[in-house]
Amino acid sequence: MRGGVWSPSARASAPADSEARASISSSAAAVARLQELPTGTVTLLFTDIEGSTRLLEELGDRYSEVLGEHRRLLKDVFERHGGVEIDTLGDAVYGAFSRASDALAAAGEAQRALAALPVRVRMGVHTGEPLLTDEGYVGMDVHRTARIAAAGHGGQVVLSETTRELLDGEFELRDLGEHRLKDLGTPIHLHQLGRDEFPPVRSLSQAQLPLEPVPLLGRKRELAELVRLLGTDRARLVTITGPGGIGKTSFAATAAAELVESFDGGATLIELAPIRSTDLVLPAIAEGLGAEGDAAEHIGDRELLLVLDNLEQVIAAAGDVARLLSACPNLSVLATSREPLRIAGEREFPLKPLAEAPAVELFRQRAEAVLPQFSADYDLLAEICRRLDSLPLAIELAAARMKVLPPSELLGRLDRRLPLLTASRRDLPERQQTLRATIAWSYDLCSAEEQQLFGRLGVFSGGFTLDAAETVCDANLDTFQGLLEKSLIRREGDRFSMLETIREFAVERLEESIEAGEVRRRHAEYFIAMAERVETEHLGPAQAHLRERFRTEWDNIRAALSWAVEGGHTEEGLRLAGALTVVWLDQNLAVEGERWFRELFESSAPVDDAVRAKALITASMVAGVRGNSPPRSSGVRRRWGYSEPSAPRRASPGRSRAWPWDRSSSGGPRKRARCSRRPKPSTGRPVVPAGSGESCTCGGFRRRPSATSMRPVGCFAKRPTILGRRTTP
């Protein structure tokens, strides 16, 4: 059965031409069987062997013989009670009856006959009006019957209230109450045939799982992988990890609902967030299971999925969880935590932020919940979600603001997310009422050393390497790993980063500390040193590699330059900007380079002559790349030593203007002397006397006839270099 469709012909596809005759015969048999199926009000009976995989391992080659005998027995019983075997699939057998009483009588007789075989079969009975098509029975009644059968245990017959209402009282039934079943929107009232004792039915109600108010979005692949780990591979311990607000609890609850029928004892969720003492974890588990005393003794050999939600604040109880798993051989634990438990057999399952499309859809759904007429451009919502790190909690809190803020204005306010993202749902736990509280929950669980390092790491923008963290923040490897395991930082290849929402919280902690200035200075010095180490390589074959490396660190370099400009650290800013030649040669970044140089040149802070000279040379190169001249405002000219002509006049081709680095050792402008290295009026090429070892001080620009940009002429050797090419004297 698939998607509520029951088909007697849903088996292997038609064989090759050589077997066409057998195919026609099989198709004819399927058509004949369809004609035998009852229509109108139909009672469906579904059966399934419990623990078939384990039984296969126990019986080995005998399993096929037992399976065949089981099928033959069920078919005979169905026919004796006026039923029709619809199909078999694996160890499942499906039948249909015109009368509910016949179906229940067949189920009772079948259970008694099957007792002689080494199998335990669960059965589900439901009455409805499924639609009979060429593909078989179709409709929700088919789906309900399958869910009812899956809720039972081996040897048990479970029936719906609609079937019970059609009986005349000739059967002894036991009322099991209303239950929420997997994939069914409304609860179903269930009954049991006979008075035998069985464990509680495997329903969502019995499993004590929270009913999620909204469906899970964008997690289909991860959900399928987690269900496979626990349901098929039978992993004993899986820990869902991730930062606060990423949706670990909802994801775990949805997975448990998918798996509730795979465990004989069902699934139970234990909420551990209110607990602070590790001594209370096992008693809380026992209480959640309805046990008096020892939880391990209560679980015993039962197949049970135990969901332990929010283990991070009692992580030291991981040893108790390990001992519980050892004592209960058929127990599986699904834990949620902001860090792994680090015990034997654990499978960590890191949960990532939502992809773009489901993130946008989540925002749209939440916005429509508070503003039914909500409408917005997809790209705008995608940018909002990106700025929110695609965290489900952050998206939900932001969408609640749609009542008062249009999307465009909300986007403009996301530079400071934490004050904006406050409670929208009163049913959320207190730790999730604001995004700040969610992050603070994780921060408060850190040691003092981890908290200090967390704040320091907020100085990085756009990610960082382990070397940068160790150099700038004095990161201890164990402390650093602690933050990684608590999901406050994340690894991406050989780099590490924070979600921007978390980094904003880290920056607040850094600014509150007395070491903020020192950390920012060390951050700038780290990237200055990195730039100065490679500045001489910008003309060689490593140029493309270096440019890509700096692009990776560009957000950090911008942060360092901003610190220099805003804090008046002009010399540090010029050292960094002056060493970034390899970066400024990129046309796309040259615009930004001009802006940084302009802002740094406006400063009146004292700067070392060598630093000033190198920065001005690089600035001129940036201007050449852009096709502009160096900065010429009067304030900059006076501050950096431009020579001012006595009166405005038209510059002759043979004369060049004195540039700011043309200064004497005393710091003042040099006297204008005719330089033999200035460009010849006729050729536009510099004249360099052969054998001269002196530095050229003209710093002139020349315009090539075929070019539209001004290019600097650097003459700092016997054979001067012009943008990587030596001139010939």
Characterize the structure shown:
There is one protein chain. With 729 residues, the protein is α/β, with parallel strands linked by helices. The protein has five domains: 181 residues, 2-Layer Sandwich (Alpha-Beta Plaits); 131 residues, P-loop containing nucleotide triphosphate hydrolases (Rossmann fold, 3-Layer(aba) Sandwich); 82 residues; 68 residues, Arc Repressor Mutant, subunit A; 64 residues, no CATH class. It has 28 helices and 21 strands. The strands form six sheets. The chain has a seven-stranded mixed beta sheet, sandwiched between helices. A five-stranded parallel beta sheet has the order 12-13-14-11-15, sandwiched between helices. The radius of gyration is 38 Å and the shape is elongated. The C terminus is likely disordered.
Indicate the CATH architecture of the largest domain: 2-Layer Sandwich
Radius of gyration, taken over Cα atoms and rounded to an integer in Å: 38 Å
Largest sheet: 7 strands, mixed
Number of helices: 28
Task: Tell me, briefly, the overall form.
Answer: elongated
Assign the CATH superfamily of the largest domain: Nucleotide cyclase, GGDEF domain
CATH class call of the largest domain: Alpha Beta
- Derived from helix and strand composition plus strand pairing, the structural class reads alpha/beta
Chain-averaged pLDDT: 78
Count of beta strands: 21
Ends distance: 88 Å
